[in-house]
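User: Predict the structure for this protein chain, please.
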Amino acid sequence: MDRVIVAPGTDVSQVIDENNVSVVGGGLTRIKDGRVLATFAGPLFVDEQRCWVGETHKRNTPMEGDVVIGTIVEAGGETYSVDIGAPRLASLDALAFDGASKRNSPNLQPGALIFARVTKSAVDMEPQITCEATGSGKKKDWTTGESQFGELKGGCVFTVRRSSCRRLSETNNPVLTSIGKHVPFEVCIGFNGKVWVNAENPQHVVLIGAILKASEKKNLDKAGADTLVRQLLSALASISS
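Assistant: Here is the predicted structure, written as structure tokens:
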């Protein structure tokens, strides 16, 4: 077979069946309904009756306490499997949301975006994440749509350098502050290199993504950020007129 590159969550059940594979190797897992999914990215290998995923990149193991943006890959009743860009899919308890109960919890479908926090992580293990806030203060219930963590609806996710995400998360980051002077928007920053942006005008979402990409190689101060934002706003205005 031609070499196939898979991502976390890719369903390879058809390959397993067509090649009469009896041994599911590294990088693959068999879930409750019998399907076989990839748990990290890489080329898919089939050798006689064995199938596995070969790693082609340096592992990015998330750190405990990191906030991340992930995509629901599998909804399994009591847990969700989530792609957070780690070597293996992360596990999210279905009740790990502020105010959730067995009778009242989010019903997330594959493809849904979430903002979460890493609670357990180590090399060669499945990361554990939660959408429950930390601290002893009063927390917003997930049903209000105002909770710190949870599903991200609308908007768009942009991929930037992880080091850029750390800078963007700093208080009064000059780039985000400058954008906010001109365009109202929402943002969630994941330390796994993902930034979610939402705004009333879809063009502004695209613009903000362009600003983030343009600034990630530069450690801009307030003046530099203001200049970059004005330039891109001007370019957008000329295109729209």
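The first strand starts at residue 4 and ends at 6.
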